[in-house]
């Protein structure tokens, strides 16, 4: 049946041989697939290693990357990040805590406002807190943070997020001109179940690939 099997050609001895062009195309496809899988494994390794590292640095500001909030109350994932930022502030790692994150449609509070409210209720003075309530993803939130940092002459930041989120966040912050260090929270609910952590890591691999392949 034409079009289903690779076309074959006869040599002078009457034997047939497959179309080498089709075989070459399949080889290239296989190599591209293997290269893509290898790249994914490398990125997964980078995400894991960066998530295990705490830079233990001092900076001009601690920056907490937002997560879900419900009527002004941080979700458990967000609260774990905020608690870690609170500990860093109390240790004197930075004199200012910036909370990033915008608002979902229908929400009364931005993630940033909910986070600042939470930290203030836990003892951080209002004058040491800054809400940057713009951005609906990591990149746009960090772009808003970078703009606020330039206005305040902040050059170094200590980023707080979940382990799986640190590699991409640090890359983005550095690309935006910030001197960025990482301090991931170790108490996130994401860490409690291996299946949950694997799911988030795989999603992060895809997000990192999209960021790296996007035009700058």
Give the low-confidence spans: 1-10
Beta-strand segment tally: 9
Estimate the mean pLDDT confidence: 88
- Work out the helix count: 6
Category by helix and strand content:
alpha/beta
| Helical content (DSSP H or I, runs of 4+) | 40-55%
Biggest sheet, spatial arrangement of strands: 7-6-3-8-9
Distance between the termini: 48 Å
The percentage of residues in β strands lies in: 5-15%
- N to C succession of SSEs: EEHEEEHEHEHEHEH
Major sheet:
5 strands, parallel
Coarse morphology: elongated
* Rg value: 24 Å
Structure description:
With 216 residues, the protein is α/β, with parallel strands linked by helices. The protein is 48% helix and 14% strand. The protein is built from 6 helices and 9 strands. It has helices spanning 20-52, 76-90, 111-121, 138-151, 166-175, 194-213, and strands spanning 8-10, 16-18, 61-64, 69-70, 73-74, 97-100, 129-132, 156-160, 179-182. It has a 5-stranded parallel beta sheet with strand order 7-6-3-8-9, with helices on both faces. Strands 1-2 form a two-stranded antiparallel sheet. Helix 1 crosses helix 6. It starts with 7 loop residues before the first strand and ends with a helix. Mean pLDDT is 88; it is low at 1-10.
